[in-house]
């Protein structure tokens, strides 16, 4: 079962997870906070992942970071597959530069709100207790 690890303190990361669910992410995907129990287990198995300031997609023993993870996730959405493919066509250093610029400045950007998940959306999260 693929697991998407995200920063549970980041409203953009959390809302991205919700966006994926709302646009048809397959039910076999799960979300776990990087600082949660599942995230700590990941870091024990893959210590190199702890140095990444990134969303992490785990598929079996393979880990994907930054825009590679984002593009793989978007590609699973039948209505947005084209967007994932378009992202993958862009050179990796350029797309990851954009990702890092956003990640490092997300708190200085526009404000947004935390999405209140419904029961279906909650079912994707391993260790999130948001009401």
TrEMBL record:
<protein>
    <submittedName>
        <fullName>DCC1-like thiol-disulfide oxidoreductase family protein</fullName>
    </submittedName>
</protein>
<dbReference type="GO" id="GO:0015035">
    <property type="term" value="F:protein-disulfide reductase activity"/>
</dbReference>
<dbReference type="InterPro" id="IPR007263">
    <property type="entry name" value="DCC1-like"/>
</dbReference>
<dbReference type="InterPro" id="IPR052927">
    <property type="entry name" value="DCC_oxidoreductase"/>
</dbReference>
<dbReference type="Pfam" id="PF04134">
    <property type="entry name" value="DCC1-like"/>
</dbReference>
């Amino acid at each position: 079962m693929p697991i998407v690890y995200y920063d549970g303190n980041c409203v953009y990361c959390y809302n991205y997870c919700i966006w994926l669910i709302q646009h048809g992410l397959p039910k076999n995907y799960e979300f776990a906070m990087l600082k949660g129990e599942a995230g700590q287990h990941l870091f024990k198995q893959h210590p190199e992942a702890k140095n990444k300031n990134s969303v992490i997609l785990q598929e079996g023993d393979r880990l994907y970071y930054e825009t590679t993870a984002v593009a793989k996730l978007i590609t699973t959405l039948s209505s947005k597959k084209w967007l994932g493919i378009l992202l993958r066509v862009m050179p990796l250093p350029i797309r990851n530069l954009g990702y890092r610029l956003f990640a490092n400045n997300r708190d200085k950007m526009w404000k947004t709100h935390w999405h209140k998940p419904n029961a279906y959306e909650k079912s994707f999260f391993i260790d999130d207790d948001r009401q």
